[in-house]
Amino acid sequence: MANHTQIAVIGGGLVGKATAVAAANAGFSTLHVAPEAPVDRRTSALMGPSVDYMTDAGLIGDPETLGVALTRIRIIDATKRLLRAPETVFSASEFGYRAFGWNFANARLGESFSQAGLVNKNLALRAATLKSARRVDGNWHLELDDGDTLTVDLLVGADGKGSSVRKAAGIAVKERKFDQAALVCDLELGRGLDGESVEFHYPNGPFTLVPAGGNRANLVWIDRLDTLEDARSEPGRFVSTLNEKSRHLFGAIEVASPNFVFPLSVLSVDVAGKDAAVLVGESAHAFPPIGAQGLNLGLRDVASLNACLKAANPGSYGWADAVARSYGVARRTDLMRTGAFVDGLFTSLLSPHIPAQALRSVGLWGLKTFPMLRKHAISFGMGK
Ligand SMILES: Cc1cc2nc3c(=O)[nH]c(=O)nc-3n(C[C@H](O)[C@H](O)[C@H](O)COP(=O)(O)OP(=O)(O)OC[C@H]3O[C@@H](n4cnc5c(N)ncnc54)[C@H](O)[C@@H]3O)c2cc1C
């Protein structure tokens, strides 16, 4: 007879770790199936509400000790287009915040989330991969690659863009791959950013410097994959390209870490929960890293699932079906709205068409000029 647990969370990325902790803290016996993975070298700008969730859920302590406060955002149109947008700066103080959010190294967040899970007796961790999942008589039957089998009431897919849980649950997915990719690395600047995130908008995507403390910055450079591969193929040329792209505004730049390139796509699902299976994080949504939305949205998935679990009655027949249904309904609007916003922003940025460029310029002009519009945009960007 196979072992039984109430909830299995598949996937050991940040969203999977946060979900496993939430499920166990809500009182459910939880198995976290998370194979060993290479260190996540990305960094994440997480907005106030996400940071509040992580703090309240015990996933992190004081954000000041783990991350760097983001107090300003500067957007510079670096295209040579006919219709260019004006330079726009947003200051957190203008909107009554001390900071828009914090910039964290994913690896440090991951360590902190794992620590939070260790203290909960409801949570067991298995360094394995899900091989198959089938639903029989109201239970999910799981097979792991270490040979173990088990049954679970609720199956949670936190297993990224290629999600096996999504396939097993028969949830339809749409994915569009871009020619662009994102290159990330750490830089040491001649002059520090002092809490300001600076986005240079180029025709093939933004080149963003995010403050990482002192003179350190995290670079997220979106461009065509062949351009990125060419630029990083020779260290001397890489540094001179970085100086050029940042308009020589920050003194001499030194590369302070290896660089990594991530392919980009936009991915959405029909529904994020059905038949006692739910999808969180990139198994349910993915888009290019502009406007810092991906993990913020993933943490909102976790907060929403947490609320559904707290409202559930695990003693009742079909409780896991009910959780999946209510979660699917609860996430619908946020997933659609955020996905459409980021996709629209990215597409307008890349568009060679004058009307799209005009729309973006007018949009940024409006954001520069009208306080209500600025307030609304910031509120939306922060996921409020
Ligand atoms: C360059 C870049 C910069 C970004 N910057 C930001 C930012 O500033 N702010 C922000 O909010 N977001 C940002 N994002 C987005 C953010 O990084 C992602 O949304 C987030 O990391 C996704 O986490 P996840 O746990 O859903 O997925 P993943 O990190 O992809 O984790 C999925 C996990 O599932 C595991 N897995 C897969 N299949 C199986 C299986 N069969 N069994 C068991 N495990 C399995 C994998 O090994 C992996 O560990 C950025 C993304 C990129 C690419």
Give the gist of this structure.
The protein is of the alpha+beta class and 384 residues long.
Topology:
Layout: E1 3-10, H1 14-25, E2 30-33, E3 43-47, H2 48-56, H3 63-66, E4 68-70, E5 72-77, E6 88-91, E7 101-105, H4 106-118, E8 123-126, E9 130-136, E10 139-144, E11 149-157, H5 164-168, E12 173-188, E13 196-202, E14 205-211, E15 216-224, H6 225-232, H7 235-245, E16 254-255, E17 260-269, E18 273-274, E19 277-279, E20 285-286, H8 294-311, H9 319-350, H10 354-369, H11 371-381
Parallel strand pairs: 1-2, 1-11, 2-8, 5-13, 11-19
Antiparallel strand pairs: 3-7, 4-7, 5-6, 9-10, 10-11, 12-15, 12-16, 12-17, 13-14, 14-15, 17-20, 18-19
Residues 10-16, 33, 35, 37, 42, 44-46, 129-130, 158-160, 164, 182, 184, 220, 262, 281-282, 289, 292-296, 298 line the site of flavin-adenine dinucleotide.
Family: Belongs to the UbiH/COQ6 family.
Keywords: FAD, Flavoprotein, Monooxygenase, Oxidoreductase
Pathway: Cofactor biosynthesis; ubiquinone biosynthesis
